[in-house]
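Risk register update: the risk that structure generation would not scale has been downgraded. Supporting records follow, first protein first.
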Amino acid sequence: MPDSPDARVVVAGASGLIGRALVAALRADGVAVTRLVRRPAHGADEVEWDPGREQLHPDVLAGARAVVGLNGATLGRFPWTKRYQHELVWSRIAPTQALAAAVRRLGEDAPTFVSASAVGYYPSAPGAELAEDAPRGESFLADLCGEWEAAAQRGAGERARVALLRTAPVVHAEGVLKPLLLLTRLGVSGPIGRGTQVWPWISLEDEVRAIRHVIDAGLTGPVNLSGPERATANDLGFALARRMNRPYLVRVPAWALRAALGRDAAEGLLLGDLPVVPRALTASGFVFSHPTVEDAVDAAVPA
């Protein structure tokens, strides 16, 4: 993305793990960033908004190269009670609808709308390959992702340029590694369920690079943001244990996960087989900095 007046990017959800890294990377390359914040703005590069109460004025997006929506309550809070499931849904739908409405009002002058989604869109599919044309699953998480994507596409209108980022769990201390680091440090990590289920994954660096690639390459529609090499839960867990020089022996049975986290969370996040492939990224020339889960773990965890 060139250092030019029209290179500005608007980011909603800039305080999260991915948002912070994206904003930092853009600014390091001289790209102007406007952050949408839910508090009084502290500078010219911030705009206060309240997507649950009022519309976003389209002038905020006018002239930008892209608007990136990354809002959403964490999936890592358990259990997923009915009340929290409601929060998971509306913390994504309301901001997405507000951004999409502003994009629609700008018409042909609107920036590309890059809207977050997740690989939870897909069903568990042992032995398959889940590219962007794979069908949607039937779980709570799949329904959430489907509604999230629909809010972006329907709200922005048929003429809008909309990219849907189906992101895999990010291999980072604040991402998928957060609960695993403590267990590994204590020497009580091991297979989760059977351990052979395929887990999609991506490093934080490649997540940010992929978002920028989506913007620069003009990709639209669903785009899988997931590492190119297949990895199982055991592959990730063992790579972390090896990196920290700790054992990998203590199995967590599937029934215990379902009891502790609830069936929706356990099946959607930990026990399902999700062999996601980043076909749209690789076909458009994207090259991963961390092509294996071991590379991603090594980048995220100090030796």
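Supporting record for the second protein:
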Amino acid sequence: MRRAAVAIAAGAMAVSLAACGSAEEADGGSSDSTKSAAKGDNIKVGLLLPENKTARYEKFDRPLIEKKIKELTNNKAEIQYNNARQDANLQAQQVDTMITNKVDVLILDAVDAKAIKNSVQKAVDAGIKVVAYDRLAEGPISAYTSFDNVQVGKVQGEALLEALGDKADDGQIVMMNGSITDPNAAMFKEGAHSALDGKVKVGKEYDTKEWSPDNANANMEAAISAIGKDKIVGVYSANDGMAGGIITALKAAGIADIPVTGQDAELAAVQRIVAGEQFMSVYKPYAPEADAAAEMAVALAKGEDLSSIAKDSVDSDSAKAVPSVLVDVTSLTQDNINDTVIKDGVYTADEICTGKYKAACDKLGIK
């Protein structure tokens, strides 16, 4: 079966962000940038990430963001970090703590993009700029960085169709979308449907609470019972964690050799791809996203313009033309593991090719 890497480039549109605001008027004409310049590199940055079940946040996002902030501030910035553990109420409390601690800027990956709106407003009212990270939080955010999430879903859908080939006409697929509290999930779903609709029958579709692998497993068991195991030809999974729960359910039902998609290029997923249990994942290089968040946060804390950093622009329901950095993604299959996660230093061949995966790695030439 032919497998291909698909690189997606985000469109660009230059956007400028004014560095003056209400603080200038209230201070008799002194600008934010003037005041921040006196502070120099001694800024205080808050970093709030949404959960720790998905491996990426603690393994990649946090250390990459913190490293870049330190580089940009000659190691003088103070970074305050918290993880919400998938609890929107806890994250709101964490924003309050950041306000109390008087951070200069906040990098926020929202658990619930809509529920966090009031907290974003409170931060802005306290003079704190907010950078929405990975998920487009509601409220008056100053900047945003993520991936082209509609294209992510489209890449997944197209990969699933490629894997199905003629079998797309022979049965039904199950769609396992992400949590409805995550705006990215809606965009992944939109992109996937744009590729899949009219080309394959969707037997069952779920919005998976909290992106939980356990919930995905239970949903998959229900889908197998409803559709029948002999009629399922493939599964669209919006991320790798859920793919793991799905594949466990498929194995328990005696279903093998059907393509399952994913996203995030988690180590366990890469190993499943090597073993042929999962067809693909979406590789999203975290370093460019993390670097963009750090660069925009430091610039905002210093009162600097974002036009040299943010070449894109996005709209949310509550903010228009938000300066943004959108990062390219790649479809990760057996064919390009060497050229993606290994080449970029995300994993070594030794990390991937442990124990039972070594023979398959050797066959694929992973090194």
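Residues 56-72 form the longest helix (17 residues). On this basis the risk owner (M.S.) recommends closing the item.
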